[in-house]
Amino acid sequence: MLESADTDVGTAIFGAVTGMDERSEEEVFEKRRIGVLAWLGIGWLAFLVIIAILAPVLPLKDPMIGDYLHPKAGIFSPGHLLGSDDSGRDVLSRVIWGARASIVIAVGSVLFGTLVGGFLGLLAGFKGRTTDSALSGVFNIFLAFPQLVLALTLVSVLAPQATSGGVKPGEWAHRIGVVILAVGIVSIPVLGRITRASALSWTQREFVMAARAQGATDKRVMLREVLPNVIPAMLSIALLGVAVVLVLEGALAVFGVSIQEPNPSWGNMIYSQLSNLDSAPAVWIVPSILIFVSVLALNYLGDVVRARFDVRESAL
Amino acid sequence: MRGRKRGAAPGTERFADAPLDGALLEIDEVKTQFKTPRGLVHAVDGVSFTLERGKTIGIVGESGCGKSVLSRSIMGLLPSNVVRYGSIRFEGHEIGQAKSSEMRHFWGTQMAIVFQDAMTALNPVMRVGQQIMESLRFHFDVTKEYAEETALALLTSVGIPEAERRMNEYPHQLSGGMRQRVMIAIALACGPKLLFADEPTTALDVTVQAQILDLLQQQQRERYMSMVLVTHDLGVVAGRTDDIAVMYAGRIVERAPTRSLFEHTRHPYTEALLKSIPKLGMPSHSKLDAIAGRPPDLVKPPVGCKFAARCPYAQPKCMSEEPPLVDPDIPGHAYRCFFPVGSQAGTDALARNLAAGETATGLPVRKEGEAVLTGSTV
């Protein structure tokens, strides 16, 4: 007993003296291992994307045509696996077709916000001084508006003649474009500020001065030295952003400015059945669960991305 | 330069027609001041020296005496809240007031710098090979293969084993000494004529320190570079530099050829620095001779000699009048003191202070200190 305790102390000391590199490598390995939950999350998101892409070839009922013989069917009803809404439209079919709109809006607007906000934030953090004050001022003004109000305003500004019956594919795409732009603009200051903060701290590191002292131009220092260090922070926030937009799209749908009936999106499926909360629960429960699970999966994926790309701090 | 695939390291062929002697760097009355809320910080306050081609100068002093700021002033690598005066001539070009966009042509190819802590001075997310190739590729129009070959050769020449494998590693995968070698390889990549080493070994352990210093010295000789070695440790520069400038409170207080500085130490500050180095012959538990007090506030530097408040030789004259930097007894050995160590005036001044128990500035000096304070140096 005593002996084993001795050995433990011995190894601990020995490890502390010589095992510096080994230990940090282990830690890196630990950090990089992807947990079961994260795998489930990645699997879920991949499954969702594949199903959404394959929607036209899957044996689904038409999402927009009602089955008037079976309105408000419960879950696992014959013919309507996930039930039907008050006009008898199949929930499974609507949820899968709706995923297309929801995913395109969520990914599209965050991509837009990350590119624009990331670029502006990088510029603000790197250049400092007047550039920083001006850009940060703009970010702060935008952040002062409640996000939902800002998004609502932007949608109504960008698409003044809101049509209620956008059945034609062209109108669907136009509406999606408007929502992407509006929500994207809302996400610019969030991503901009995160990127700015990260860029600011990396710009003050000595290796940036070292790169300058080797004669690198500002542009080169910004893109080659600072940007790669800022990307992990941007990515993990962007992934969370996708989750936030999934929910925000639902909120926009509640106000009737997102994808319009009869086209489905997860958000407007919940909205359109507000009057049937009791009588046809499947219609709002199913998309709610999908949003919940997807947001959870994105959060786990965000953690994985952060750990995966962070080669530095773990080993410092 | 396109089409050149082999031969000397990029940039070094310039030396073929470059003069082999004469001044490479002449700085005259350089002043660097930082604008802060408290007022102007006189970080470098009128420093002059000349560095010849292929020679090295050591700049020594405590923390906060302006030695790092001096090297960055010369390179023009300072933040924007700084005011610079004086003349800095590099190969005859005046660069004292040059903007960053003009200095870019000098950085890397003419002058380069090795920083103290290689961990923070290397980009953590870029492979080390990539970091060496970077500057080669943007200064010279060379192919990727050529840059790779050169980077590999550089890594090998700075003593990195298995250079091929190390090329693809990240900084955190290397040991401290290895990282500093990579830093040196990066600085040397474009064949600079002047290398600043800003406390290059302070972050390293003692056994690696000597290796890195030897490497710097070897590269400096092989490439016929001039080198400015900044350090707080006189032991680092001893035997490795041609000249030494000792700095205190932003000014040079003693400047001499290395041998002369150690053999005929004149300034009490230099003497005190030497005293503070522990020696192998000392019995264990010997008390080290720390220098009493702190360096003065550089916002409001004292009138008279800046070191007077901490100097055991201080006389009333030292508090009112600043001694000039002159070389009255040994040519080339300049110092800033009215009562230099080893002179009759200095010995008398110390004796007066010991008799009084304190110096003119009120610093207590005791008899026990006599052996330490007046003993011969080195």
The overall pLDDT of chain B, averaged over residues, is: 84
How does CATH name the architecture of chain A?
Orthogonal Bundle
Estimate nothing, just give the exact number of structural domains of chain B. 2
- The CATH class label of the largest domain in chain B is Alpha Beta
How many distinct helices of chain B? Answer: 14
N-to-C series of helices and strands of chain A: HHHHHHHHHHH
Under CATH, the homologous superfamily of chain A reads MetI-like
The proportion of residues in beta strands of chain A is: under 5%
Which structural class is indicated by helix and strand composition of chain A? mainly alpha
Q: What is the helical fraction of chain A, as a range of percent?
A: over 70%
Just name the CATH architecture of the largest domain in chain B: 3-Layer(aba) Sandwich
The CATH fourth-level homologous superfamily of the largest domain in chain B: P-loop containing nucleotide triphosphate hydrolases
- General shape of chain A: elongated
Shape of chain B: globular
Beta strand count of chain B: 11
Radius of gyration of chain B, Cα only, in angstroms?
22 Å
- Name the chain pair whose interface involves the most residues: A-B, 24 and 35 residues
- Count of DSSP-assigned helices of chain A: 11
